From TrEMBL:
This is Efflux transporter outer membrane subunit. It comes from Sphingomonas oligophenolica. It comes from the Bacteria. It is a lipid-anchor. Residues 113-122 have a biased composition (Low complexity).
């Protein structure tokens, strides 16, 4: 038995691997971000380590994010998927070691008359027959595959990489969730601002309708002035109803992301209040930071798993050596069960080598290579997609500040123009049409400014998400941290 144990240990430790060595592919994108008129000059050589609290600095938004990290159902699904992948890996890894089973039993048999017995486990039935009883206790190894060619080890490596892949997918889910909550919170703020604009415009238009009706009744204003004033009022009332619905739907969307009711005290009152609380994340110069994005990490672990499966497919072309061993005791009387004379053992090695499979083995290798090529293309596409997303966000970041500044100036000018036009109309100097045009221009400028402020704030959220680094979210991961050495452990847990 000692010899058998030594043989098993030597063959398990000495198993080779037929998987091709893994080499990370070169980045299929330029080494730095685009430059030009649409982009800001980047001064940082590398992307710093940040947390969502560094980007979302409003304590109310931080509280909502923390609540979502506990209650969001997508995160619970991701955590369950990690548990499934971890268990699958442990199941596959267990095949590296033999399964040892123990059994014990008692057997009672009756023989016809004429039978004889010489042990104390035999007795007469009183009707010409005898009964024989025997006890047994065994421990053994059942069909343990000696992994000489690394088939099981390659499958274990593939399972381990898919475990890490699932954990990376969970981190991608967390990162997306935080970004979605930030966007939803800002969208709620912008709709609250639009609601306030619609309320103010409706109130102002109502006063204009009253004034115009009074002037019409006094014979000073024509009926067309009243009709035009009513058009502005009903338009504002329609927008008011629409924005009331939008605010309610924004809250519903935010509660779905959080997975629980939200305290109204945590909600912003306007985009002017919420937008300045989102900080800018410097993108750095090196596009290699994309390799830390969770979705890119996930795609690379799938590539590693597919690479390992090539080794398993190659090993399937070679013979499989299995070992079955049994050692135990058997005796009639229980008292002599564990004596030296009751000991017995058996060892049965076997070799299985398929002679004819109609090319299925080589087709399996070709299939695994093709799956590796698919994983490689998917990995490269993930990097290219990430590069495009970051480049788009940087292009928007490079111009949005100028657009917001111009829109603020336009809104200020429209406000002054409306104030003067309304005063001239009330003084009988200008026609109502001029005042009406000024009011419409102000309303449009105010709404456009809110939309621009929302775009500027959500652009910062987009940069946080597409650059893909948040050390706090990585720390909350329930699975293992990504590692580059994917050699399967040999112990049992």
């Amino acid at each position: 038995m000692r010899t058998i144990a030594l043989l098993l240990g030597a063959t398990s430790l000495g198993a080779c691997s037929l998987a091709p060595p893994y080499v990370r592919p070169d980045l299929p994108v330029p080494p730095s971000w685009p430059v030009g008129d649409a982009y800001l000059a980047q001064s940082e050589a590398a992307l710093p380590s940040v947390t969502y609290r560094d980007i979302f600095r409003d304590p109310r938004l931080q509280a909502i994010i923390e609540q979502a990290l506990v209650n969001n159902r997508d995160l619970r699904v991701a955590a369950a998927n990690i548990a499934v992948a971890r268990a699958t890996y442990h199941i596959q890894r267990a095949e590296l070691l033999p399964e040892v089973d123990a059994s014990g039993g008692y057997r009672l048999a009756r023989t016809a008359s004429g039978g004889s017995s010489s042990n104390s486990g035999t007795g007469s039935t009183g009707n010409g027959g005898t009964t024989n009883g025997s006890f047994s206790a065994d421990i053994g190894i059942t069909s343990f595959e000696i992994d000489l060619f690394g088939r099981i080890r390659s499958l274990t490596t593939a399972a381990q990489n898919r475990y890490f892949e699932t954990e990376a997918a969970a981190r991608a889910t967390r990162l997306t969730l935080v970004g979605d909550i930030g966007t939803a919170w800002l969208t709620y703020a912008s709709d609250k601002s639009l609601l306030k604009i619609a309320q103010d415009t409706a109130a102002s238009a109502g006063e204009s309708v009253k004034l115009t009706k009074a002037r019409l009744d006094g014979g000073v204003a024509p009926g067309t002035d009243l009709a035009q004033a009513q058009i502005v009022l009903t338009t504002a009332q329609s927008d008011l109803a629409q924005q009331t619905t939008a605010v309610a739907q924004d809250l519903n969307a935010l509660q779905l992301l959080v997975g629980a009711p939200i305290d109204p005290a945590l909600l912003p009152a306007s985009i002017e209040e919420a937008a300045p609380t989102v900080a800018a994340l410097p993108a750095g110069l090196d596009s290699g930071v994309l390799l830390r994005r969770p979705d890119v990490v996930q795609a690379e672990y799938e590539l590693r798993a597919a690479n390992a499966e090539i080794g398993a497919a190659r090993a399937a072309l070679f013979p499989r050596i299995s070992l079955t061993a049994l050692a135990g005791f058997a005796s009639g009387p229980l008292g002599s069960l564990f004596t030296g004379g009751a000991f017995n053992y058996s060892v049965a090695p076997s070799v299985n080598y398929p002679i004819f499979r109609a090319g299925a083995g080589r087709a399996g290798v070709q299939q695994s290579r093709a799956q590796r090529d698919v994983a490689l293309a998917t990995y490269e596409k993930a990097i290219q997609t990430a590069f495009r997303e970051v480049s788009d966000a940087l292009a928007r970041r490079g111009t949005i500040a100028a657009q917001t500044s111009a829109q603020r100036a336009l809104t200020a000018a429209a406000t002054n123009n409306y104030r003067l036009s309304d005063a001239r109309y009330r003084g009988g100097i200008d026609t109502f049409l001029q005042s009406l045009d000024a009011q419409r221009s102000l309303y449009s400028a105010q709404r456009t400014l809110v939309a621009t402020q929302l775009t500027e704030a959500t652009n910062l959220v987009t940069l946080y998400r597409v650059l893909g680094g948040d050390s706090m979210l990585d720390a909350t991961a329930s699975g293992p941290k990504p590692v580059r050495d994917t050699a399967a452990p040999t112990g049992n847990r």
